[in-house]
Amino acid sequence: MSQTTNLDKNYHVPTPDFLNHPLFLNATQGVEEATQLMKIDPNISNRLKLPRKCISVAVPVRMDDHSVKVYMGYRVQYNHTLGPYKGGVRYHQNVDLGEVAGLAALMTFKNSVLGLPYGGAKGGITVDPRKLSRTEKQNLTRRYTSEISSFIGPSKDIPAPDVGTDAQTMAWMMDTYSQEQGGFTQPGVVTGKPVEIGGTLGRVGATGLGVVYIAVRAFETQGKKISGSSIAIQGFGNVGSHAALYAFERGAKVVAVSDVDGGIFNGDGFNVPQLRAHFEAHKSLKGFPGAKDITNKELLELPVDALLPCALEGVIDENNAKNIKAKIIIEGANGPVTVNATKVLHQMGVFLAPDIIANGGGVIVSYFEWVQDIMSFFWEEDDINGKLKSIITKAFDTTYKTAQEKKVDMRSAAMGVAVKRLEKAMLLRGLYPR
Ligand code: NAD
User: Fold this and answer.
1) Of 49, 86, 93, 341, which is least surrounded by CB within 10 A?
2) Which of 192, 128, 133, 120 is nearest to 164 (CA)?
3) How many other C-beta atoms lie within 10 A of the C-beta of residue 342?
4) What residues does ligand 1 touch, defined as CB less than 6 Å away?
5) How much is the pTM?
């Protein structure tokens, strides 16, 4: 037992060690700053620095060679003041309870700043999904869903895909949950499903599209345009590859992209549809005509107009922040720039659009999916993208106004707006001890 460093020093409550995970501390450091900025009642902010419920499950899986392996799975339900819990499920070898708790905290603040009727949650399994066959991944997903099934549901907690999971994973989760509810199909229990079984149009590219809507507004606030600008993108998965495509469609020069194996550069900008086809065919960025190989470190430090980190958390910290040359950063990934690095960058005059707004496109369109499932009435893609643009732009503009008024960076302002909305809701609901 220890005391998480971001809890009020007068709040002498021992907390479990997993809450000392850097991602968790980073998320709760933001709550402390928001508390000062927006004059939040410390009774409320201390509550917001701790998860409401942490679920750990052992998940036995029958492997293809008939052996049984037991994996650790988690679901952290962080806060449900604003509505049912909502957040993705991550399959990755580094997943642990502390990381899931940190990501669940970020989901709480993301849903709040975006104005969605959701609380925040996150789930995960400590596994390298690339080492599983399709059958093993299905067995793992079904057993994990069974283990957490009494905690999830369309009006309780609604999982979605994250790193290492996809629409197929959600289809298995929905099917398993539905079987446990007497066999009645419950499409609203997860989002990010295939369209054929209650998924929504526009979900696959939604996060990347949201990143680009935010990039467009970020350029505008700096008196610039995305068209003709140079952009570097770390990560060429769901978020990074879609962000590259939508930026390209708006006339940006995508000069560098990377994945776990390294990056490629072309100062004239890539033809992104051709690059996506190359990646699809070769499962690698390497060998694309006209491209020069670069490292991920070099990509982050390129002299571009905008940098979009769309892969991992913590890639820009206090050590390398001073090497960043981009004037605009849009956080496509969750937590790619630490809170302390954000401050260094702000002093350097870099404009940073924080993750809880910039990568909100996924959860916004997940929200539309959930609404459509409840209504059993499905919308056109243009309608969906229009509504996505309006919600994400409104969150950006409210945050930008707060940042200007309070003279702080955009991350501090976004956390301020998020925590203020949560405080109002908690007061209205009477959810804190007077
Ligand atoms: P993904 O698995 O589809 O892609 C991840 C990409 O990062 C891949 O290209 C991978 O090669 C690359 N990568 C992995 N390790 C790397 C390393 N060490 N260095 C450089 N690149 C590396 O995942 P995704 O869905 O695109 O998610 C990426 C980030 O965005 C995560 O932080 C995720 O939580 C966040 N996010 C995703 C969504 C969504 O809708 N998919 C929504 C919100 C936030």
Assistant:
1) 93
2) 128
3) 23
4) 162-163, 207, 234-240, 258-260, 296, 310-312, 332-334, 359, 362
5) 0.95
| d(C-alpha 291, C-alpha 268), whole Å | 10
Nearest to 74 by CA among 29, 112, 104: 104
Q: With contact defined as beta carbons under 8 Å apart, do 213 and 392 qualify?
A: yes
CB atoms within 10 A of CB 430: 8
Cβ neighbours for 161, distance < 8 A, ≥ 6 positions apart = 88, 89, 167, 169, 170, 192
Q: Tokens representing 194?
A: 């295939």
CA of 235 to the centre of ligand 1 (A): 6
Would you give the distance in Å from CA 103 to the centre of its chain?
8
Is the pLDDT confidence value at 400 over 90? yes
Q: How far is CA 326 from CA 233, 259, 301, 345, in A?
A: 11, 19, 8, 10
Structural element, H or E, at residue 8: none
Question: Contact, 89 vs 165, CB < 8 A?
Answer: yes
How does pLDDT run across 6-42, given as a tens digit for each residue?
887 777 678 889 999 999 998 899 999 999 999 999 8
Distance in angstroms (rounded) separating the CA atoms of residues 313 and 8: 26
Taking the centre of ligand 1 as the mean of its atom positions, its distance from the CA of residue 163, in whole angstroms, is: 6
What residue owns the CA closest to ligand 1's atom 4? 237
Specify the 3-state DSSP secondary structure of 134: helix
The answer to whether residue 122 is catalytic is yes
Q: What is the pLDDT of residues 361-399, one digit of tens each?
A: 999 999 999 999 999 999 999 999 999 999 999 999 999
| pLDDT value at 433 more than 70 | no
Sign of CA dihedral 32, 36, 38, 40: positive
Q: What is the pLDDT of residue 434?
A: 55
Q: Work out the angle at residue 292's Cα, subtended by the Cα atoms of residues 288 and 294, and round it to the nearest 5 degrees.
A: 115
Q: Which two tokens stand for residue 268?
A: 């004239």
For residue 101, the cross-strand partners are none
